[in-house]
Design brief:
The complex is a heterodimer of chains A (about 500) and B (about 500). By secondary structure, chain A is of the alpha+beta class. Chain A has 18 helices and 11 strands. Chain A folds into 2 domains: about 260 residues, Metalloenzyme, LuxS/M16 peptidase-like (Cytochrome Bc1 Complex, Chain A, domain 1, 2-Layer Sandwich); about 180 residues, 2-Layer Sandwich (Cytochrome Bc1 Complex, Chain A, domain 1). The longest helix of chain A is centred in the N-terminal third of the chain and has 22 residues. Chain A starts with 9 loop residues before the first helix and ends in a 13-residue tail after the last strand. The chains are: A alpha+beta (about 500), B alpha/beta (about 500).
Chain lengths: ~500, ~500
C-alpha cells in the first residue's frame, strides 16, 4: 500500500486552521458572560446535545493562600463544602449553632494547653481534650449526615466532586436539565451559608488522604520533598494536602475565616454548559448567586521566589524501583513565552515521535517512559518545567539525567526541523478541537480561562499563540531556562534489601 | 428600550429594599419545582452486517470535525497459554509499533503525527482492539493506515524486544504502589491465583513470547467475522458504508475464535496478610465471587450497591468515613461482568493503628444488614440516584455507540439499557435484602490486609488464622533471587 509522501501536509494545515476559526465563531454565538453586581462572573454555553448540563465553580484560591501554620486549609475547606448549610444537614440549626460554638471554645482551650512549650499540664491536656470531644459528640446530635451530597445524588447528579490545587479550587457535577434551578439553589447556598459541622472527623479523613497520596507512596514522598526543595520563598514550597502538624492543629474557625476571606464573588467564576438557554438560565443563576454578599478582594501578594543560583538535589532511598526527575524554574502562565514552553513540552513528550521517547525509550533503550512538562506544582505563579524518566531494570537515574541533558542541549544548539514545528502546531489545533466535545471539559476550560484571562476566548487564542512560535524562540527559551544552576533534581534510588529477614513481621 | 430597562432596574432596587430578600426564593430545596425532563430519544447507530460477517455500527455526530473508529476483535489474554502470560499485552503493542509490510512503525508514527492523528492497538482480556482518531479531512489517509495495520501487520522484531523490555519494567515496578498490589492480589483471591482473569505476566512468561506467537495470534483471530467495527463522527453514513464495503469486500471469512471454559476457584475464606514496612496506612480488601449481568438478581444487586457501598450517601461512606473518620476511600459492591462472574469487593484504607478496628467496623455493617436491612427510604434514594442519572448512560452519540458495541460483542439484547431501567424500577425491598444475603457473606470473604504490621492496633491474627502471602517477584531465568533490581518485597 502506498502513502502520500510525508511532506504533503499543507492541505491538512489549512483545514485545521479553518476548523479552529469556525469554533470560535460558533462559540461566540452560544456563549454568554455576565458579571453580576456582587462581582461573580457567570459563563453560560449552550450545547443542546442531550438533556443534561455540567457546571464548574472555579474559586481563585488554593493552597498558595493557606495562612502560615495552616497548610492544607484550602483543601480542608473544600471537604467542608460538602457538609451542608444552615438548612441542609441539620435537624435544628439554632441548637446546632450553639453546640458548634462550644466545640470551638473547647478546642481552642485544648490546643492552648497542648501547645504550651513550657509548663504544660498533661492531666489538664487530657481533660481539655475530653471536654472538646464531648462537645463534638453533643454537636453531632443535630447532624443529618451527608444530606447535601445525598440531595445531589438522588436527583441524578453525576460525577459529584471537587478538587483543590496550589492555584485554585473547583467544584463540579452534572445534572439532568430539569434540575437547573435546584442546582442554582444548592450551589449558591453552599457558598452563602456553609456550616463547619463534623469538622474534626473530616480532618481525620483528610489525614487519611495524606497517608494515601503522600506518606504511603514513594512517588508521593519524592514529589513533596522535591517541590519543597525547588521553592524556598514562594508558597509553592508547601504541600496542598498540608503538613501533618498543621492538619492536627487548625480549627473549624480557621476554615471559616479562610472561607470569609477568599470565597467572595469577585474571586469566583461559575460556568454552566449543556442543554440550557442563556436567556432562561442567566436570570435563575443571577437570582440565586446574586445573593452572595460582595466583600473586598483579598490581598493578592505572594512572596516572589528569588532566582536560584545553585543546583539542589533530593535523593530518596526507597524499597521501590528508581525514578529520575528534574525541574527548572520558569515564569507564570502570563509570560509572553508561555506558548513556547507549551511547544517544547509537546516536542519533547507527545507520542512516539517525541524526542524523549525516541532517544531514551526507542534508541538508547534505557527508560520505560520519559517526558517533559510545565505546571509543577501549579502554573498561576512562576513554576517548574520538569523532566522525568523511569529507568528500565538495570539502568540508573544518572543515565536518565545524562540522556535528558543531551536532548536539552540539542534544543539549545540546533533548530528544530520544519516537520517538528508543523507537528506541534497541528497537534495544538487538533487537541483543542478534541477538547470541545464534552460538557464537563468545556465547563472546566471556560471557567479556567475566564478566571485566568478575564476572557474565555483565550482558550481558542492559545492555539494562535502556539502558531506564532518560531525555531529561534525555542532555542532562546531553552537556553535561558535549562541551565544547571536553575535546576532541582529528585531521585528515587532502590534501597538494597536488608539481608535475610525483610519479609519479617509475621503475626 | 434603555429607559424601560433602567425603570425595571429601579423598581427592582426599591422592591428589594421593601421585601425580605429571600421571599422570592425557595427556603427549602423541596419547594423548588422540578419540571418533567424533556423527552429524549438518543440516536441509535446504524447496524450493518457485511457478507463476510463483519458487524459495523455507524454513528453520525456532526458537532466537531472528527472521525473516530474502533474495531474490537474476539479473543484476548484469557485464552493465551499459561506459559506465555503477557503475550496478548505484547501483541497489543507490537501490532501497531511493529509496522506493516510497507511501513515501519516509526514511519507510521511520522505519517500519523503530522496529521495529529492516531492509530493504536491494544490487548485486552477477552478481545483486542485497533482504533483510529483523525480530523475528518484526513479520513482517507488515516483509514488507509488503519486498514493496513489491521490486515498487513509485520510485527518487526526490534519492537517485540522493546515491548518485552517495557513489560520487564512493569513487572519490576508492580510492588511499588500499594493500591496496585491490593487490586492484583485481591483479584487472585477472588478468582484463584492461576485463573486467566487474575494471573500476572512474569519475566519467564514474557521472555517466552516470540515473533511467531504474535503472527500466529493475528492469523488465528483477525478475521472479519470476529470483528465489530464502530465509527462515530462527522461523516455521511451512506458514503461511509460504500467506503467500508469497498475496503472490506474482498476480505474472506476465517475460522471463528474458540473460547475455553474458565473455572473459578476462589481462595479459602479467611485472613491474608502482605506486610509492607514503608507505609503508614493499611489497605483492606474483602472479596468473594460476584455475578453476571444477565443474572436476574443484577438489578437488585445494583440498588444494593448504591445503598450500601456506592456514593456519598451510602451506608459505608456515612458510617466509616463521615461518622467514624476511619478512611478517605471506602466502598463496596457486588461486581457484575458480561460473560463471567464479577467480583464482590469491599475496600477501604485506614491508618495502621486502626487496621483491626476497621475490619471489625466493616463486619458491623455486614451484620447490620440482617438486623437493620436496607430500608424503604434507603432503597428509594438508591433507585432515585440510579434512575435520575440514567440519562448519563446515553448523553453522547459516542456513549450510545460504545454500549451497543458491548451488547453486540457479548450477545446481549440491543435494548439492554431500556431493560435495565425497567429492571431497576421493579426492585423491591425484599429483592435488595435477598441479594445482600445471597451474595455477601461475612464468613465467606477472603480478607486481604496490606500494611505495616508493627503499627497495627492488634495483630491481624486476633481475628483468626492468617495466611501470609509472598509477593516477591520471581527473578528472570538465570538470575539469582537477591539481585536488587528484580525484587521489591
Amino acid at each position: 500500500m502506498n502513502y502520500r509522501p510525508l511532506k504533503s501536509f499543507v492541505i491538512f494545515l489549512a483545514l485545521a486552521t479553518l476548523a479552529a476559526a469556525q469554533d470560535i465563531a460558533s462559540f461566540e454565538k452560544r456563549t454568554t458572560v455576565k458579571k453580576l453586581d456582587n462581582g461573580l462572573t457567570v459563563v453560560i454555553c449552550e450545547r443542546p446535545e442531550a438533556p443534561v448540563f455540567s457546571f464548574f465553580t472555579h474559586v481563585d484560591a488554593g493552597s498558595v493562600q493557606d495562612p502560615h501554620g495552616e497548610t492544607g486549609l484550602a483543601h480542608m475547606f473544600e471537604h467542608m463544602a460538602f457538609k451542608g448549610t444552615d438548612k441542609i444537614g441539620t435537624t435544628n440549626y439554632a441548637a446546632e449553632k450553639v453546640a458548634l460554638e462550644k466545640v470551638e471554645q473547647a478546642y481552642a482551650a485544648y490546643i492552648r494547653e497542648r501547645d504550651k512549650p513550657v509548663g504544660r499540664d498533661e492531666q489538664k491536656v487530657k481533660e481539655l481534650q475530653k471536654a472538646w470531644q464531648d462537645a463534638v459528640a453533643e454537636a453531632e446530635k443535630y447532624v443529618k449526615p451527608n444530606e447535601f451530597p445525598q440531595i445531589v445524588e438522588i436527583n441524578g447528579g453525576e460525577d459529584l466532586n471537587a478538587n483543590t490545587s496550589d492555584d485554585e479550587t473547583n467544584y463540579f457535577y452534572s445534572f439532568p436539565e430539569n434540575r437547573l434551578e435546584l442546582w442554582a439553589y444548592l450551589e449558591s447556598e453552599r457558598f452563602l451559608h456553609p456550616v463547619m459541622r463534623e469538622f474534626y472527623k473530616e480532618r481525620n479523613v483528610v489525614i487519611e488522604e495524606r497517608r494515601m497520596r503522600v506518606d504511603s507512596n514513594p512517588i508521593g514522598r519524592l514529589l513533596e520533598q522535591f517541590t519543597t526543595a525547588a521553592f524556598q520563598a514562594h508558597p509553592y514550597h508547601r504541600p496542598t494536602i498540608g503538613w501533618i502538624s498543621d492538619l492536627n492543629t487548625f480549627s473549624a474557625t480557621d476554615a471559616k475565616n479562610f472561607f470569609d476571606r477568599y470565597y467572595i464573588p469577585s474571586n469566583m467564576v461559575v460556568a454552566v454548559v449543556g442543554d440550557v438557554k442563556a436567556s432562561e438560565t442567566m436570570p435563575i443563576v443571577e437570582k440565586y448567586f446574586g445573593r452572595i454578599p460582595s466583600r473586598p478582594k483579598p490581598d493578592e501578594y505572594a512572596t516572589v521566589e528569588p532566582p536560584q543560583n545553585a543546583e539542589r538535589r533530593v535523593v530518596l532511598e526507597e524499597a521501590s524501583q528508581p525514578l529520575y526527575l528534574e525541574g527548572y524554574h520558569r515564569p507564570s502562565y502570563l509570560s509572553p513565552d508561555d506558548a513556547i514552553y507549551d511547544a517544547i513540552a509537546d516536542l519533547m513528550s507527545e507520542g512516539r515521535t517525541s524526542r524523549l521517547y525516541r532517544a531514551l525509550v526507542r534508541d538508547k533503550k534505557i527508560a520505560a517512559d520519559s517526558e517533559g512538562f510545565s505546571g509543577l506544582p501549579g502554573n498561576k505563579y512562576p513554576h517548574l518545567f520538569a523532566f522525568y524518566a523511569f529507568p528500565l531494570p538495570g539502568h540508573k537515574p544518572e543515565e536518565m539525567a545524562e540522556a535528558i541533558h543531551v536532548e536539552i542541549e540539542r534544543l539549545k544548539k540546533e533548530d528544530i526541523s520544519d516537520e517538528e514545528l508543523k507537528m506541534i502546531k497541528t497537534r495544538a489545533k487538533a487537541n483543542l478541537i478534541r477538547s470541545l466535545g464534552s460538557n464537563e471539559g468545556l465547563a472546566s476550560s471556560l471557567a479556567l480561562y475566564q478566571t485566568r484571562y478575564d476572557d474565555w476566548r483565550e482558550l481558542f487564542r492559545s492555539v494562535d499563540r502556539i502558531d506564532k512560535v518560531s525555531k529561534a524562540d525555542i532555542r532562546r527559551v531553552a537556553s535561558q531556562t535549562f541551565v544547571p544552576t536553575n535546576r532541582t533534581v529528585g531521585i528515587i534510588e532502590t534501597r538494597k534489601p536488608a539481608t535475610g529477614a525483610e519479609q519479617g513481621g509475621a503475626q | 428600550m434603555k429607559i424601560h430597562r433602567s425603570f425595571v432596574l429601579l423598581l427592582m432596587i426599591i422592591l428589594a429594599g421593601l421585601v425580605p430578600h429571600a421571599a422570592s426564593q425557595a427556603a427549602d430545596w423541596r419547594q423548588i419545582p422540578i419540571p418533567a425532563l424533556s423527552p429524549f430519544h438518543p440516536q441509535e447507530p446504524k447496524r450493518i452486517e457485511l457478507p463476510n460477517g463483519m458487524v459495523v455500527f455507524l454513528q453520525e455526530d456532526h458537532e466537531l470535525p472528527i472521525i473516530d473508529g474502533t474495531a474490537r476483535v474476539r479473543g484476548g489474554s484469557r485464552s493465551e497459554p499459561a506459559n506465555k502470560v503477557g503475550l496478548v499485552d505484547i501483541y497489543g503493542e507490537v501490532w501497531r509499533t511493529g509496522g506493516t509490510k510497507s511501513q515501519t512503525g516509526d514511519q507510521l508514527d511520522d505519517y500519523l503525527e503530522i496529521r495529529a492523528a492516531k492509530v493504536e492497538t491494544n490487548g485486552g482480556v477477552d478481545s483486542t482492539t485497533i482504533t483510529w482518531s483523525c480530523l475528518k479531512g484526513d479520513f482517507d489517509d488515516v483509514f488507509r493506515a488503519f486498514n493496513d495495520v489491521l490486515r498487513e501487520p509485520e510485527f518487526r522484531a526490534d519492537k517485540l524486544d522493546l515491548a518485552q523490555r517495557e513489560m520487564y519494567d512493569s513487572i519490576a515496578r508492580r510492588n511499588d504502589d500499594v493500591s496496585q498490589i491490593a487490586a492484583r492480589e485481591s483479584t487472585k483471591l477472588a478468582y484463584g491465583a492461576d485463573n486467566p482473569y487474575a494471573r500476572e505476566p512474569e519475566y519467564a512468561t514474557v521472555a517466552a513470547v516470540t515473533r511467531q506467537d504474535l503472527v500466529d495470534w493475528h492469523h488465528s483471530h483477525v478475521h472479519p467475522n470476529n470483528i465489530i467495527l464502530g465509527i462515530v463522527g462527522d461523516f455521511d453514513s451512506a458514503a461511509m458504508e460504500t467506503k467500508l464495503r469497498q475496503a472490506f469486500g474482498d476480505w474472506p471469512k476465517g475460522p471463528p475464535v474458540k473460547e475455553e471454559v474458565i473455572e473459578f476457584h476462589p481462595a479459602k475464606p479467611g485472613y491474608y496478610l502482605i506486610p509492607k514496612e514503608d507505609v503508614n496506612q493499611s489497605s483492606i480488601r474483602m472479596t468473594e465471587l460476584g455475578i453476571r449481568r444477565d443474572n436476574p438478581d443484577y438489578y437488585a444487586a445494583q440498588v444494593f450497591n448504591e445503598a450500601f457501598g456506592g456514593g456519598f450517601s451510602s451506608r459505608l461512606f456515612k458510617s466509616i468515613r463521615t461518622a467514624q473518620g476511619l478512611a478517605y476511600g471506602v466502598g463496596a459492591g457486588i461486581g457484575a461482568a458480561f460473560d463471567h462472574p464479577g467480583i464482590l469487593r469491599v475496600s477501604m484504607s485506614t491508618k495502621s493503628s486502626t487496621t483491626v478496628q476497621s475490619v471489625q467496623a466493616l463486619y458491623k455493617e455486614f451484620d447490620a444488614l440482617q438486623t437493620n436491612p436496607i430500608s424503604d427510604d434507603e432503597m428509594k434514594r438508591a433507585k432515585d440516584a440510579i434512575l435520575n442519572s440514567f440519562v448519563f448512560n446515553f448523553d453522547s452519540p459516542e456513549k450510545v455507540l460504545r454500549e451497543r458495541m458491548a451488547y453486540e460483542f457479548y450477545g446481549y439484547p440491543a435494548d439492554f439499557l431500556e431493560r435495565y431501567r425497567a429492571g431497576i424500577e421493579k426492585v423491591g425491598r425484599e429483592d435488595v435484602a435477598r441479594a445482600a444475603a445471597k451474595y455477601l457473606h461475612k464468613d465467606k470473604l477472603a480478607v486481604l490486609v496490606i500494611g505495616n504490621t508493627a503499627e497495627f492496633d492488634k495483630p491481624l491474627s486476633s481475628l483468626g488464622p492468617v495466611t501470609q502471602l509472598d509477593i516477591s517477584i520471581p527473578p528472570p531465568p538465570g538470575e539469582s533471587p537477591n539481585k536488587p533490581s528484580a525484587s521489591n518485597p
